[in-house]
Amino acid sequence: xxxxxxxxxxxxxxxxxxxxxxxxxxxxxxxxxxxxxxxxxxxxxxxxxxxxxxxxxxxxxxxxxxxxxxxxxxxxxxxxxxxxxxxxxxxxxxxxxxxxxxxxxxxxxxxxxxxxxxxxxxxxxxxxxxxxxxxxxxxxxxxxxxxxxxxxxxxxxxxxxxxxxxxxxxxxxxxxxxxxxxxxxxxxxxxxxxxxxxxxxxxxxxxxxxxxxxxxxxxxxxxxxxxxxxxxxxxxxxxxxxxxxxxxxxxxxxxxxxxxxxxxxxxxxxxxxxxxxxxxxxxxxxxxxxxxxxxxxxxxxxxxxxxxxxxxxxxxxxxxxxxxxxxxxxxxxxxxxxxxxxxxxxxxxxxxxxxxxxxxxxxxxxxxxxxxxxxxxxxxxxxxxxxxxxxxxxxxxxxxxxxxxxxxxxxxxxxxxxxxxxxxxxxxxxxxxxxxxxxxxxxxxxxxxxxxxxxxxxxxxxxxxxxxxxxxx
Length: 473
Fold this sequence. Notes:
By secondary structure, this protein is an alpha/beta fold. The chain has four domains: 129 residues, Response regulator (Rossmann fold); 165 residues, P-loop containing nucleotide triphosphate hydrolases (Rossmann fold), CATH 3.40.50; 59 residues, Helicase, Ruva Protein, domain 3, CATH 1.10.8.60; 78 residues, Arc Repressor Mutant, subunit A. The chain is 47% helix and 15% strand. The strands form six sheets. Strands 3-2-4-7-8 form a five-stranded parallel β-sheet, with helices on both faces. Helix 18 crosses helix 19. The N terminus and C terminus are likely disordered.
């Protein structure tokens, strides 16, 4: 049996009451807590600021006159530090002389004392409704921005169509975990967002965490949060990403990089739908959809005892295999058109697209970096070149060299202002082309160049070249 209270995190708004009247603070805390709000109180400005440093709040009720200051100054401080917070000022005077100044400073409303508790509840409800509306507008704008610059929603291949058919089927369930598996750059995050946007929890937050980008020692506190004083740097209570994603979606990118110890805690949280912050004594109950993604073979990691088998089965309820771009070349032309239009708008250009020869080179390339690499190639061509069309010489050398027919482009690159380039520059070009043809495999590239692998490594370091696709070979 679980010990400690279970806290319902969904739609729990924090309210800070700041007043020097102890009786009023107590009455407000009791009355508002019954409505489901999390309420803390402070008797003066100093205590209020200390409380704000410890915990997160959505709204503050401020007395106009306080022992060590006034509500108007505290209002300005709050709006400066926490612009998303709503503030209501309470005044014992018949007329609030600073109403105009308070409104300009961001005060939602002001109420004269004494007041009816029901009236205060109505004001608070209206203030928090505005907060919800602001958050919804922000969310919808983010969705539109994502769709405007999206990648995987473009294309007509049968493989892509099957993926979206699966997404439409599973999105409406709202609870099943999803595992996205595919190479780096295929767009797993965009697919995760699509599952979220089409699901019943699309009005909730979409929270992403890259498990490979955060050290294990910090990832646990990022996921589950911590209580004030739980460790040296815990100056205030911090919500974890799982709690922040409550009512929405938590996207765990590169899940295969998570440590075994943390996998165990994650599994428990998924099974129980509850967890504790670090240093906490109470369970926090959450309804969060989990979408995980990986570019690694989790089954192989399970066999190597580097990934928990029970967590794998827990995540692998619905698996979506995202094919690399080289396996769906029919999606390349519409993606190019999409990116050309996108970067024309972003950069104020009017490029028509690639020439026939440039398109042939783009179609022949194997795209080790997948859709992300294609997006970057089009951005570079439009940003750095001034021609009406994207020409072969506007493309990276690894793309030109990969086709086996880039001699003319190579000659153009080797010539500077009417003359031959330097030997060092020619060597660099040769290395880049070899790496492009070898899809980043250093061993193959070294063989084709007629040098040892160690010599190639030295040259890569000398010329600061990153191998295409990042394959070690």
